[in-house]
């Protein structure tokens, strides 16, 4: 949770309600006053003559907030005031706010005092860069520290925060209970969204269809049986020097396509030819093929003379 402090130079007990007042002033960046330390936050420097209008004889209760509008484009935002020391007819604005409002040096703006703003209870922000996530180990503490310089925030604005010589652009995505809320003397929850430049890492995940096909192929090859017949030598003896068929799945790609080779292996190196009577395999096959004894060529032979 974040809690905002009392604005510089003004005590909380010195504030009471005040009247609405509007000013037409020339805008200049704070860097012209050599007060770059005020770049943190959204507080402006008003002309000394304005203090009599915004702070009449009676005291005000809450920090003064203003709506500041580019008279040429109509683009606007909200801010607080840090002091009344500018020349008459001038207002000094943080450089980043000048850029956000598309203001040029000396361009006229309307600065209008607002009524009491609702206190913030919730804020959702989105940083522009992943550096915000990488470089800041405790973002919640950092945000509480830096946002104390913001008197108020407006949903839809892009603000700049400075931390350890780094500038971070932050979108104010949403605020509650209203689109413009005060950060003064209130506790509020902050949600941080993924940075704008965040990219999801590539994922190499097998599809369900591809995984199913692979399992089916593995099951099919597990059932594969090599040739179960008996090989014989020319002499009629059964040979144990048989050939096995092995199926091997070589690769499986992530698109669900399976490539495989059926490899015919070379004969067993230990295979030997044995007489039929000396092999258990021969005995088994002999019983199975009883009555089907091997018979050599039984045809007649002829000589060149025909006899």
From TrEMBL:
Residues 25-114, 119-195 form the Ubiquitin fusion degradation protein UFD1 N-terminal subdomain domain. GO terms for biological process: ERAD pathway; ubiquitin-dependent protein catabolic process. Keywords: Ubl conjugation pathway. It comes from the Eukaryota. Residues 271-293 are annotated as: Disordered. GO terms for molecular function: polyubiquitin modification-dependent protein binding. PANTHER family: UBIQUITIN FUSION DEGRADATON PROTEIN 1, UBIQUITIN RECOGNITION FACTOR IN ER-ASSOCIATED DEGRADATION PROTEIN 1. This is Ubiquitin fusion degradation 1. It comes from Heracleum sosnowskyi.
């Amino acid at each position: 949770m974040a809690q905002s402090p009392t604005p510089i130079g003004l005590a909380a007990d010195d504030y009471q309600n005040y009247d609405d007042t509007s000013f037409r002033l020339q805008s200049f960046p704070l860097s012209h006053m050599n007060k770059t330390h005020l770049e943190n936050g959204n507080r402006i420097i008003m002309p000394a003559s304005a203090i009599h209008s915004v702070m009449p004889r009676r005291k005000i209760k809450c920090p003064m907030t203003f709506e500041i509008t580019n008279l040429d484009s109509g683009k606007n935002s909200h801010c607080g005031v840090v002091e009344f020391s500018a020349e008459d007819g001038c207002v000094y604005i943080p450089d980043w706010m000048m850029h956000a409002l598309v203001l040029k040096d000396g361009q006229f703006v309307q600065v209008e005092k607002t009524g009491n703003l609702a206190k913030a209870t919730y804020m959702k922000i989105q940083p522009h860069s992943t550096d915000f996530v990488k470089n800041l180990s405790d973002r919640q503490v950092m945000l509480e520290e830096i946002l104390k310089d913001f008197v108020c925030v407006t949903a839809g604005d892009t603000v700049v925060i400075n931390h350890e010589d780094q500038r971070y652009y932050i979108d104010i995505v949403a605020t509650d209970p209203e689109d413009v809320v005060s950060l003064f003397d209130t506790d509020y929850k902050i949600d941080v969204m993924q940075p704008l430049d965040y990219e999801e890492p590539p994922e190499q995940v097998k599809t369900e269809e591809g995984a199913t096909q692979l399992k089916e192929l593995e099951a099919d090859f597990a059932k594969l049986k090599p040739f179960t017949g008996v090989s014989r030598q020319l002499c009629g003896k059964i040979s144990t020097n048989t050939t096995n068929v092995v199926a091997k799945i070589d690769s499986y790609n992530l698109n669900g396509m399976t490539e495989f080779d059926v490899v015919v292996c070379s004969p067993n190196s230990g295979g030997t030819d044995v007489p039929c009577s000396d092999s258990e395999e021969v005995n088994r096959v002999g019983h199975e093929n009883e009555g089907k004894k091997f018979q050599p060529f039984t045809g007649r032979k002829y000589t060149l003379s025909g006899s």
